[in-house]
Design the sequence.
C-alpha cells in the first residue's frame, strides 16, 4: 500500500511558504476565495519562475501537495520536501507511485498542485501534458487555474529564474471548472478532448489575469 503524503506536513509547508514569500517578495493574491473550501481540488499553475510552487503553496487557502520533478529532491531538500507533503515524480517514465499518491490526495479530499506545462518555460499554458486531464477525469475533482505573474521581464534579478527581490508577484486564482464531459470516460480520445477543454480554460484565465493585473 502506497503511503499518502502528510496533510499536516503540507500545512507546515504552507506556513513556511507564506513567511518566505512575503519576506522576499510582495505577493498580491486575487481570487483565493474561489478555491472550494472542502473536497478534492486540482490547482493548475503556470510555470515561469522557480518560486511558482512555493508561492502558490504559501498563499493558497488550503494545504497543497505539488507534483514536483524528482531532480528537485536533492540532498537535504529530499527529506524536507517529502516532510512538507510534496510528491516526487519521475517525468521520464510512467511513475505509478507518484500517480497513486496523487490520486490518493484527491480521494482523501485534498488539494493537488500541478504544473500542466511539465517544466518551467514561458508560463503561457501553450503546451499541456495529458497528466492534468487524467487526474481531473479520473478523480472528478474540479480544476482551479492559477496564474503567477512576476516581473521576470524587468532588470534587477539577482538570480536567473527568480523575480527581483521585493518586487510584486501577482497570484490570480480562477473559477473552478470540470475537465470531463460528464460521461466518466477515460479513453485516450476522452482525455485528449479534456486536455483541449482544459487548455482553452487555462489560456482564457491567463489572459484575464494579465488584463486584471496589467502584466
Sequence:
Amino acid at each position: 500500500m502506497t503511503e499518502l503524503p502528510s496533510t499536516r506536513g503540507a500545512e507546515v509547508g504552507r506556513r513556511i511558504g507564506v513567511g518566505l514569500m512575503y519576506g522576499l517578495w510582495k505577493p498580491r493574491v486575487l481570487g483565493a476565495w474561489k478555491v472550494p473550501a472542502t473536497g478534492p481540488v486540482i490547482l493548475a499553475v503556470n510555470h515561469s519562475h522557480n518560486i511558482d510552487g512555493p508561492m502558490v503553496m504559501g498563499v493558497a487557502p488550503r494545504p497543497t501537495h505539488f507534483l514536483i520533478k524528482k531532480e528537485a529532491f536533492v540532498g537535504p531538500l529530499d527529506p524536507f520536501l517529502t516532510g512538507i507533503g510534496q510528491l516526487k515524480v519521475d517525468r521520464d517514465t510512467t511513475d505509478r507511485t507518484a500517480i497513486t499518491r496523487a490520486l490518493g490526495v484527491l480521494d482523501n479530499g485534498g488539494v493537488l498542485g500541478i504544473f500542466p506545462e511539465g517544466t518551467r518555460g514561458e508560463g503561457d499554458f501553450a503546451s499541456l501534458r495529458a497528466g492534468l486531464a487524467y487526474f481531473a477525469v479520473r478523480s472528478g475533482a474540479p480544476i482551479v487555474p492559477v496564474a503567477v505573474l512576476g516581473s521576470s521581464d524587468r532588470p534587477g534579478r539577482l538570480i536567473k529564474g527568480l523575480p527581483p527581490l521585493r518586487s510584486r508577484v501577482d497570484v490570480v486564482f480562477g473559477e473552478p471548472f470540470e475537465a470531463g464531459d460528464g460521461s466518466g470516460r477515460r479513453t485516450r480520445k476522452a482525455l485528449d478532448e479534456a486536455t483541449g477543454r482544459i487548455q482553452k480554460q487555462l489560456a482564457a484565465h491567463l489572459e484575464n489575469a494579465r488584463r486584471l493585473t496589467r502584466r
Notes: The chain has a mean pLDDT of 86. DSSP finds six helices and seven strands in the chain.
